[in-house]
């Protein structure tokens, strides 16, 4: 939660209106997730987790839009660029590599990249309505972690560009 909070603050410190909007969504999602997790009558933290996953997707899209080597797959009716999931995943993995994120291993020596892949695949199933995808606290905590981590990477990229 601390990394997510710090990441949100980093985004708020930019002059980028999209990043500021995403920061607001992260704040609302974090608060909602915490409230839903504390309420024993709520089985799944839908609202908070959805807002956080949406924020993560927004941050990844921002990275794609600000990378001259990544071309959108197409443009939507609103003339906004659309990046496919594989483009987003590859882009974020490249930025994580650049910031030495994937060099981390857990106590059992499992590479962080494997955990990222498992999270990405589950996130993809949630976003595309798979009946096997689920919202729970474990996914929520992982999402908080990746939102915070990605916000830090976005801030680094923002600073490089400005």
Feature tags:
162 residues, mainly alpha, two-stranded antiparallel ribbon, 6 helices, 2% strand, Apea-like HEPN domain-containing protein
Commentary on this structure:
This protein is mostly helical. It has one domain (2-161). Helix content is 67%, strand content 2%. It has helices at 2-12, 17-38, 46-65, 85-98, 112-127, 137-161; strands spanning 74-75, 81-82. It has a two-stranded antiparallel sheet. Helix 2 (17-38) packs antiparallel against helix 6 (137-161). The protein is globular and about 45 Å long. The two termini are 28 Å apart. 26% of the residues are buried. The mean pLDDT is 86.
Furnish the topology, listing elements before pairings:
Blueprint: H1 2-12, H2 17-38, H3 46-65, E1 74-75, E2 81-82, H4 85-98, H5 112-127, H6 137-161
Antiparallel strand pairs: 1-2
Shape: globular
Please give the radius of gyration in angstroms: 16 Å
State mean pLDDT (0 to 100 scale): 86
Number of E-type strands: 2
DSSP helix fraction: 55-70%
Number of domains: 1
Please report the number of helical segments. 6
Q: Could you list the spans in which at least 5 consecutive residues all have pLDDT below 50?
A: none
- Report strand %: under 5%
Structural class: mainly alpha
Terminal Cα span:
28 Å
Name the quaternary structure: single chain
What does the main sheet amount to?
A: 2 strands, antiparallel
Q: Widest sheet: strand order?
A: 1-2
Q: What order do the helices and strands follow?
A: HHHEEHHH
